[in-house]
Amino acid sequence: MLPVYSGKVYPDSNDHRERTTDLDDYQLMDSMSGKPFQSNYETELGSPNMRSNISKKNVAEIDMARDGKHEDPLENFASTTTMHGVSFYYNSKSKPIKAFWIILLVGMGAMLTYQVVDRIVAYFDYETNTSIIQEFVVEMPFPAVTICTFNRFYMESQASPLIDAIHVFNQLITPTNVGRNGIRNHRPNLSEVADLLDSELNIRRLLRKHGFYLTGKVMPRCVFKYEDCSSEDFSEVLSWMGVCHTFNADNVSKIQNIPGAGNGLSVTLNVQLDGITEEPVFGLRDAGLRIQVHQRGETPDVGSLGMSIPVGRKASIEVTRQDFNLMYKPWGICDPSNENLKFFPVYTLNNCLQECYTNAVIDRCGCYIFTQYWAEEYGRQCTMSEMQDCAYEYLIHVQRTHSADICNCTVPCSHSDFHSTISYATFPNPPTTGALAKIWEIPETEASQNVVEFDLYFKAMSYSKLTQSKKIDESSLLSDIGGQLGLWLGMSIITAVEIVQFCARKVCRCGKTKKT
């Protein structure tokens, strides 16, 4: 009698046994005696004879059959995944319904791809949002204020033998003169004035001796917040406009806590027009004051960025402050990694440009110009001959040809700008003219022609704050992508893990099949 398995005949079998269809406990029956041959299939499979006739693949199938698992990774994934729609497609028996779900899944996948790519492209556009708010405060740090006059050297007598030397200096250090090739067309003869000065023709030494200084007669009145101030509250600055003076340049900042006129800095100055020594053609041809309001720690550029106040006038200067917090590259134009300067402790755009110009002059001419005093520890000062032959004309060339990009200078990521509104009134009135004439010991007519006054103050105890931020930051990008995944296919990070697990199991299964 042939062995029987689940009612089917297996003629190729060598053993006359019968197996029941109970997969939990295989009963091997002898067809002749009808007695159980073996009660446990594992014992049978453990027999060397049986193992030799059953392949590893068959053993795996029998193990799966015993456990009740006909495991298919795709079926398992389709029935357990959190991705919407996959189970409906896989489990459906109707072809139209399967077609509907496959079209829907493909369409949703296409929309998901489009939206995700759009969000990623938008992120790499590096766009920013800009917010401007008005901050109201109890007090505000006062800005730095730099004052210059249009007369660089003061001489009591126009008959002084130094006048010729001063005229030579005027020709060399006036940018408008150098800019139109004045040095080449009207080259001064330094040998003619060499006997009047030291052998180096040191213009810095001459400025310190005959420059603009805030003595008692020059500055009869200085008041900050109803308290007297003096020349000790100013710091000396050298520029092509001569000796200038900066108020509030010290480490301890002065504070204004009440807005309006009279609550800031008020100064009266005598510009001493009778001591003007400017060269008539190639010198400065204005009269009065030039004033610049700027950030503390920034090198002033009064000649280019200042405001002019004529003689016989009082200027009321209202100041407003604006703070900037800008984005770094590639979202913005600032670069915090580049905000370290060799010559200056504070990074500003003007300080960076001045350092660039100074390095260019030192590299080309081997010395620095007297106005570039910040490089004193890194080189030597140019003599007048070196200024005439190389330094000053090359400086003007560099200023015209070297933009901020060439100098690798960017706007600071955080800085303050001060905007000024200026108005004028005639000053002084007749009684004040008489009082000033007594102080200066000059005629009243001369006093009215020499006096200049300004009142500089914050208009309000508030400032505007401009802040840039990423239009799409990393968190927003992840949120956008997560929202698109959930909207179109109901996917999440867990779904991604499920897909990875499914792919891994498929790979492992293929590997086992190849080995078998």
Could you characterize what this model shows?
By secondary structure, the protein is α+β, with helices and mostly antiparallel strands. Among the domains are: 4-53, no CATH class; 73-123 and 473-515, YojJ-like (Helix Hairpins, Orthogonal Bundle), CATH 1.10.287.770; 134-154 and 211-327 and 416-468, Acid-sensing ion channels like domains (Acid-sensing ion channels like fold), CATH 2.60.470. The chain is 37% helix and 21% strand. Helix 12 crosses helix 13. Mean pLDDT is 80; it is low at 1-28 and 37-53.
Task: List the keywords.
alpha+beta, Acid-sensing ion channels like fold, 21% strand, Helix Hairpins, 17 helices, disordered N terminus, 5-stranded antiparallel beta sheet
